[in-house]
């Protein structure tokens, strides 16, 4: 599968691909579809939620110190 020339990178990549393939089989969807869900929908949504939470906490802390 992976062919970066760095053995540990290839091993991690291969392991992750195997996990995604098995998850796709369990869910009855394709490998490509689970990739789309994970890396185009779910991961960006989590990143955005975490960013918004950081902003919320920043404003909360700023409000507490200013009086």
Structure in words:
It is a single chain. Helix content is 84%, strand content 0%. The chain has 67 residues and is mainly α. It has one domain (7-65). Helix 1 (7-27) crosses helix 2 (31-65). The longest helix is centred in the last third of the chain and has 35 residues, at 31-65. The mean pLDDT is 92.
**Total count of helical runs of at least 4 residues:** 2
- Average pLDDT rating: 92
Estimate the global geometry from the Cα principal axes.
elongated
Question: Total domains, how many?
Answer: 1
What is the element layout, followed by pairings?
Elements lengths: L6 H21 L3 H35 L2
Helix pairs in contact: 1-2
In short:
The protein is mainly α and 67 residues long. It has helices at 7-27, 31-65.
Summary tags:
84% helix; 2 helices; 67 residues; single chain; elongated; mainly alpha; 0% strand
């Amino acid at each position: 599968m992976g062919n970066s020339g760095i053995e540990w990178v290839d091993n991690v990549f291969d392991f992750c691909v195997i996990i995604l393939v098995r998850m796709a089989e369990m869910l009855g969807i394709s490998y490509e579809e689970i990739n789309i869900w994970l890396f185009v929908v779910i991961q960006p949504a989590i990143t955005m939620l975490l960013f918004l939470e950081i902003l919320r906490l920043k404003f909360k802390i700023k409000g507490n110190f200013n009086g």
